[in-house]
Amino acid sequence: MRLDYVVRRFGILLLVIVLAVTLNFVLPRLMPGDPVEQKLNQIVATSGGQVGDLTGMAAAYRAKFGLDQPVWRQYLNYWADLLRGDLGYSLERFPERVSETIGSALPWTLGLVGTSTLISFTIGTLLGGLLAWPRVPRALRALIPLLIVLSAVHYFLLGLVLLFVFAIVLKVFPAGGGYPFGMVPRFDWASISAILRHGFLPALSIILAGIGSWTLGMRGMMIGILGEDYIALAEAKGLPQTRIFFWYAMRNGLLPQITTLALVLSHVVAGAILVEVIFAYPGIGYKLFQAVGSKDYFVIQGIVLMIIVAIAVVLFLLDLIYPLIDPRIAYDRR
What DSSP designation does 91 have? Predict the structure, then answer.
């Protein structure tokens, strides 16, 4: 791989990050309403109107969060804070920092969405290869219509169905949350089992919706690969069917799947927002939903920036490792 290509791609990565930071700064400020006034209105509503000088409090809040300065000064301060790793304070949960908000929610999202995505990828890819294999039992092919339906249904709709059936009607799983109310999670079996029970339904909705897409994608690739000359040659040489399936067919069909998996995993930090909202799961998606509802500028900025940077970095790394995954790919200029 040429060094100039790597440098060029890295320059594009930096440009994407600069544009992301700029848009991330501008877009929350285009939202209607004033976050300081909204916060003070909440204080008034909960205190029965006895809050003192609202004008002075509003000025103090704006000065505290730098919202009393010109926009260009806020933009420069935003860059300076980012370079120091400071994402600012949460307007809604002051004095909690945005990094603390993200840090408390990120493990929940990585555990739920990351694990669910890898499970659905593994099952769906293997199942897709088997459904395209001519020697697979006919009974297995009966799953294709069901998989088509699952691929067309969004995971949050499956989440609503699972929530109604298993949490409301049958009452075998909790209706929401990451753990029982009032419980302090610890590294023990009681906490782990409770967390697994609360995460089962949201994880199942993501897995079921993902399996259909992974299966159909891999099946389409395998159908084309089975007609290639190297498959016919491997069969003519008398190689075992298991070896032909895994080393000749599946291996060559994995590249598009791995590309899609990398893109999906880059979105893991965002969480399955609607699923987390439906199940009130304490992940990044649910935190973002709460921040948008309360116009918490700095939390919105921090989460959105993290998502964009994660996607940009994954795409950059994917470009670099493509030749390692498939030696037929080269970026050298001819």
Answer: S
